[in-house]
Amino acid sequence: MADVDACDLSGIRYAVNATLHDNEASFAFDEKCKERGITVIHVVNLGKAAFLAVEKPKGYPFSEVVKKGSDDFRCSLGKYISQYGMFWQIPVPWVDEAIRHYSEESFPQLGIGAYIAAGYCANILANLTEGKEVKYFPKFYLSPLLEEI
Questions:
Q1: Which of 43, 60, 87, 146 sits at a 20 to 30 Å CA gap from 138?
Q2: Closest alpha carbon to 145 in 120, 124, 119, 116
Q3: Phi, psi of 17 (to 5 degrees)
């Protein structure tokens, strides 16, 4: 998104951020949405899995997943998922393995992750518009293909 300030966000209640989250500019849209009271759904393709986080305008910022000067965004996100799982005693071994495997390169972006993410995103948007309960960040949705979580 070249110029976030040029976006007309009037009348928008929900937005989807499906950028690569690989630089500061990728979170500029979130800041504009936050200023305007818009809920943002973050969609991340993790190759054989999908991660989604719903950020309230006045809630905990999703950008906290990435620390300045840290790893690739997906590795930072993987570490967040792993630590969350350890805290709640819900281990996510495939994420730990992926972090080890991709620590020197990015998680792959496979088509299956995109399909899973799109399905979840549509469901979350429907629940939001119907006033149904959703998980808000720091909670999240994680759906791996053929893996137990």
A1: 146
A2: 116
A3: -105, 100
Between CA 67 and CA 134 the distance in angstroms is 26
Q: How far apart (Å, rounded) are the C-alpha atoms in residues 68 and 27? A: 13
For 72-116, how does the pLDDT look when each residue is reduced to its tens digit (9 = 90+)? 777 788 888 888 888 888 888 777 777 766 665 666 666 778 888
* Interatomic CA distance for residues 104 and 69, integer angstroms: 14
- Give alpha helix (H) positions in 7-68: 28-35
Other Cβ atoms less than 10 A from the Cβ of 133: the count is 7
Report d(CA 21, CA 37) in Å as an integer.
21
Q: Measure CA 95 to chain center.
A: 15
Asked if 17 and 41 touch (Cβ cutoff 8 Å), the reply is: yes
